Each structure stands twice: as structure tokens, then as C-alpha cells.
Amino acid sequence: MIKGIGMDLIELDRIKTSMEKNKKIADRILTKKEKEVFLQLQNNHRKAEFLAGRFAAKEAFAKAAGTGIGKLSFQHIEILPGVFGAPEIRAKGYESVNIFVSITHSREYAAAQVVMEDQT
Asked: Which one of 35, 37, 86, 111 has the minimum C-beta count within 10 Å?
């Protein structure tokens, strides 16, 4: 049974500006393992896409959970590439829930959708 659905959309320029102004923005949004992936990316545009996609996915997760960011931290939610490269999401306190995530990018935006489902 579906427990929650969330989606989020963010402008890439907003993330690029944040990255220029605040060198620690990636530390705020990304977990340690996510940051390892982020640092391997080739250029700032790809880094902005990655960071924006993770930001949107974590916001979408918080919406699906019904809590919003605040009760949950960005650090409680981790999105890493799976075996075939598609993003897989895990969140502290939600181990008994199936969580599905989709992240997409365009020239101007990153968007994400999350669906939460009972494992029973």
C-alpha cells in the first residue's frame, strides 16, 4: 500500500548561486558517501545537477513522509547509485518502507519524485 508521494522541482541556477556563495552547501545537503560521488564529477555544471537532484529528492522524500525538512535532516536521507546507476534512496527510521525515487534534469531544472510503500 502506498504511504506517501512527494515531488520537488528546483532551478539549477539557484543551486549554482548557492555553491558560489556558500562553499559548505554540499556538506549541508549531502551525506559523506554522496559527497564522495559529488567530488568525482568532472565539472561544476555536473556538480550543480547532482546537488540539485539530491536536494529535490530529499525534499520530495520529506513531503512523501509527511514531515517536511526540519523534522528530518538532509543527513538522514541518502541517495546513491544502485547496481545499474539508477538512484536508490535510504532514510534513517524508514527501513521498513519501500522507497522509490526518480530524479531528472533539464537545462534549467532538477526534479524528483518519491513514492513510499509499506513492505507488507
From this structure: 86
